[in-house]
Amino acid sequence: MPALDSAQRARLLADTLRILQERGVDDAALDRLADSAGLALEELRRRFTHWAGVEPERFVAFLAPDHIARQLAIPAPDAPDPPVVETLSPADAKALGERLVIRWGWHDSPFGRALLATSERGLCWLGFATAEDGRDGLAELAAFWPDAQRVADDGATRPLADRVFGLTPLPEEGALRPPPRPSPAARERETGSLVTRENRSLSRASGGGLGRGKNAVQSANEPIRLLLKGTDFQIAVWRALMRIPIGAVASYESLAQAVGNPAALRAVGAAGGRNPLCLLVPCHRAIQKSGIIHRYRYGVPCKRALLAWEQGKRERAAAMTEPPPPA
Question: Is there a domain that residue 324 lies in?
């Protein structure tokens, strides 16, 4: 069995997803894809199931519009805020200027090329190569963080990309591949992280506080820290989106009610579409109350694939927590 690195796994999963979305479970097409990767068809299916949480047939069922519509839920108003989110107002971000150093990198993902950017305060950008309106990912990043110092550094963002997109190897595959040697820059960052880890705590500014966080390197054993910049209304919408359970969707009406402005449907939709961390601030979980998915910043097919992936993860998690059958 060939051992694949995370970029190869991502491209293989992206090609598999494309076949499932365009043709359904077409074993002939999947077999050709497997052969091109040096795999047997069953091995390709096993790799996909390891990532998606369900077999390809079940995943295809999750893509169906009527299935997505049945997952409508209401954002949990009493759910606690994620403990690793820091917020900045636009004025605070401008005041920071180039003192905020953002490291960015492009990475392959199952949903297409993804741009991630991180800072010492947390992950501050996650988007795909080209928005539906044609905007380039780097141009979006520069427009959103115009005053920060932006540095190309895919070594800083690769571990985050692997975690966000679930690009873990199969257990036996990991045993075949020696751990990669970190670059000098990565070793320097990690050294700094170990020094500061003992004496720094994450600032959780609810109104745009400027407390300093940890080094840009984030440990694989801790939740991914997020840095959000927005107006009070945008932050409220993004927090409401993060309270939609994984594997569920919510209507724009319920989101507007959750932020205390039931009439602001268009404003809620616009705020969701402007969030800087797609997937992690799950604007893809917002749909019309009729169940129709009519638009998404990176295209409706991407939105359907994200929702199906989360359905698979929810189903696998539920199966793992079910009590064993009586003997």
Answer: no
